[in-house]
Fold this protein.
Amino acid sequence: MNSDIRDLTRAELEARLSALGEKPLHAAAVFASLYKDGAGSFAAMARVPARLRRLLEREFSIPPFKSPETLVSAADGTRKLLFSFPGGAPAESVVLPGKGRLSACLSSQSGCACGCSFCATGEMGLVRDLRPSEITAQYAACLRAAGGPLSSLVFMGMGEPFLNWENVKKSVSILSDGSGFAFSQGKMTVSTVGVVPVIRELASSGLKVRLAVSVVAADERLRGRLVPMEARYPLKEIIDAVRDYCRARGAQVFFEYIIFDGVNDSAEDAGRLARLIKDIPCRLNLIPHNPPGGPGAGVTARAKSFQKAMIAAGVRTYLRLEKGPDISAACGQLAARRRGSARG
C-alpha cells in the first residue's frame, strides 16, 4: 500500500508535489480537504483539481481507521475513546469537561516502554509508536465527541511523547497548520517523564507548545523505584534542563506530582519538592494516584496538607480531582484491561 498522505506535514507535502512536477501551493487545498472537510478519499477532495486528485491516488493512500469505542462517565461527563489502530495497536484519548471548557488528552504511543510501576500503560509494555495520522485521528475523534471546540490539548495519554518525538512534532505541525485543523500550539502541552535531550531540543526550537514534566517523587531513590527512567535521566539533570528551558523560552513549566497515600506525601516530601522547584517559574499539579486495580485514596487530608505546604513555600499549586472513575479514564487503564482480557 502507498504511504498515508496524512503522515506528511504541509511542508513535506509541498516538497513531494514539487518533486512530482506539481505546484507546491496545491498542498494547502489538500490539507483543507483532509482536515477541514474531512475527506476520506481523494475523489472527495472537491478543492483539488481532478488531474491532481488522480495523481495523489496513484502516489498515496488514505486508509480508513476503525471508529473508536466511546464510554461516557455518568459521574462527570468525561468521555474515553478507545482506538484499535492497524496491527491491533490500542490507544486511548479522553475528552475532559471543565468549567466552561473542554480539554482533550491524546496518546503518542500504543503502550509504553518507560515501565513506571504505578502506570497501567507501563504494564502493557511498548506495542509501537503511533504515526502522525493516528495521533491527529485521535484529535478529530475527540472534536466530534466533544460536540464543539476544544479549549486545550495535552499529549499526556498512553506513551512517552518524547520517545516518539519526530511523529509528535509532525502531529503538532499538522494540528496547528492554518490550512488544516488550525489549533493553536500555545494551547497544546506535551508531558514527559523527563527525556533530557528532547527538553533541551524543545527549548531551542520554534515550537510554541508548553512543557509538563512528571516529577512523581522528589527523592531520587524513591523516584528510581517508581520510574525506571530515573536511571537514564536522573532528576537533577531533568531539573537542570527544565531550568534552562524556562530561561531560554521565558516560559513557565507544569510539574506533575503523583500523590501516593503514605508514600510521598509527608511534610518532609513537600519540603524536598519545594527546595527542588521553588526557583523555577512553574505551576504544580498534584494528582492523587488512581491505581489500575480500583479506586485510589482520592483527595486525602495528607494531600491537602501537602498542597498547603507547597503554597506556603511560594509554589503555585493545584490539587487535581479524579475524572471519569467509572470508565477507567486514567491513562491506559481501559486498553490494558481489554488487552489483558483478550490474552486471558
In short: The chain has a mean pLDDT of 93. The longest helix spans residues 132-146.
